[in-house]
Amino acid sequence: MSINIQNAEFIIKSQQLLSAVIEERNKIKKQFLELQTINKEQKHKIHELETELKKTINIVENERVEIFRALQKKFNFLIEEKSNLLESNELLMQQKVELEAKIRKTEEKNDELLYEINQLKDKLNNQSNSNKSNEIIITNQPIQLNQLNQPIQLNQLNQPIQLN
To answer: Is the pLDDT of residue 145 over 80?
Structure first.
């Protein structure tokens, strides 16, 4: 009987261990299924996050491209403006040089004219002084009254004065 008891105890212990192993296996299986569910949820969240990230990257990239295009357009505009300003400045400098040359020519011409005017004044003064010393020619022609009220013209100074 002792063998039967030992066998019975062994069978009971074996059944208890088997029950414990099955229970542990079921717990592990349950944990595995829970982890699998969590894993699927996380994979889904990761996929959603990746999709959202891709959208955000596309938006940022599009905005970067738009900003770059706007900056490029502004840069090109500024280069064109600079070119126009340089061209305009060059034209203004040419005009300045031309005007300075005209001013110099005008000043030279003014100096020449002033010199000529002074020479003519001197000549006129000399002529008027020389006319005073010239002989007066007396003729028998009568002086008309309207001649006395007229101013003497420069070309008349070289002619002898005729008295009646």
So the answer is: no
| DSSP letter string, the chain | -HHHHHHHHHHHHHHHHHHHHHHHHHHHHHHHHHHHHHHHHHHHHHHHHHHHHHHHHHHHHHHHHHHHHHHHHHHHHHHHHHHHHHHHHHHHHHHHHHHHHHHHHHHHHHHHHHHHHHHHHHHHHHHHHHHHHSPPEE-SPPPPHHHHTSPPPGGGTTSPPEE-
pTM of the full structure: 0.44
In the numeric block, the tokens 């100096």 are attached to 111
Give the tens place of pLDDT for each residue, 16-42: 999 999 999 999 999 999 999 999 999
Residue 157 and residue 127 in contact, taking contact as beta carbons nearer than 8 Å: yes
Cα gap 109→112, rounded to integer Å: 5
